[in-house]
Structures are given as C-alpha cells and as structure tokens.
C-alpha cells in the first residue's frame, strides 16, 4: 500500500479514530477547528506499519466542523467531520 487511510466520525463524548500506516514512520495526528486552530494533538510518535485506533474526547468542543490531519512520512490525509449535540456526520 502506498498511502495512509484515516476514518473518523464524532460520537459524543468519545470518538474512535482509525488509521492505517503503510510503513514504519513518524506519525503526527492533530485536530483543527474550522479557523485552523489546533484543538488536540492525538499522536506524535514513531509507528510500525499497521492498523491503529486512537480515542478522542470531544466534550470540550463546541458544535462545528473539525478536521483530523494525519501525516505519516511523505503521506498526508485530512478528513472533516461535523460535531453537533443532535447528530454527528462525516463530510
């Protein structure tokens, strides 16, 4: 595999973010709000190739669109998700 894979969907209060790393590399995963402000650092470490999952507690966040940014080596992927008290949806 020549890319990374990232899957997330808000599920108050705790969200499980799944990701795949194709080869050993240093991994950064951060969450940003719509204005580009960093709201959480989830992963900053060397990882072996494989599937991973990290928990993210979103109780301190207000409703809105958020971006999960994953970087592993030369690969980068960003996914957005909408957080609402009534429903959660990946966009």
Low-confidence parts = none
Order of helices and strands: EEEEEEEE
Radius of gyration: 13 Å
Proportion of residues in extended strands: over 45%
Number of helices: 0
| Strand order in the sheet with the most strands | 4-3-6-7-8
What general outline do the C-alpha atoms trace? elongated
Helix content: under 10%
The second-level CATH architecture is: Sandwich
Q: Which CATH top level class fits?
A: Mainly Beta
Whole-number count of domains:
1
Q: For the terminal residues, how far apart are their CA atoms?
A: 25 Å
Reported by name, the CATH topology is Immunoglobulin-like
Biggest sheet layout: 5 strands, antiparallel
Count the beta strands. 8
Could you tell me the mean pLDDT?
A: 85
Helix and strand composition category? mainly beta
Summarize the structure.
With 91 residues, the protein is an all-beta fold. It is built from no helices and eight strands.
Verbal overview:
With 91 residues, the chain is mainly β. The chain has a single domain, classed as Sandwich (Immunoglobulin-like), CATH 2.60.40.3080. Helix content is 0%, strand content 64%. The protein has strands spanning 5-7, 14-21, 25-33, 38-47, 50-57, 64-72, 75-83, 89-90. The strands form two sheets. A five-stranded antiparallel β-sheet has the order 4-3-6-7-8, with no helix packed on it. A hairpin with a 6-residue loop joins strand 1 and strand 2. It starts with a strand and ends with a strand.
Break the fold down into its secondary structure elements and pairings.
Layout: E1 5-7, E2 14-21, E3 25-33, E4 38-47, E5 50-57, E6 64-72, E7 75-83, E8 89-90
Antiparallel strand pairs: 1-2, 2-5, 3-4, 3-6, 6-7, 7-8
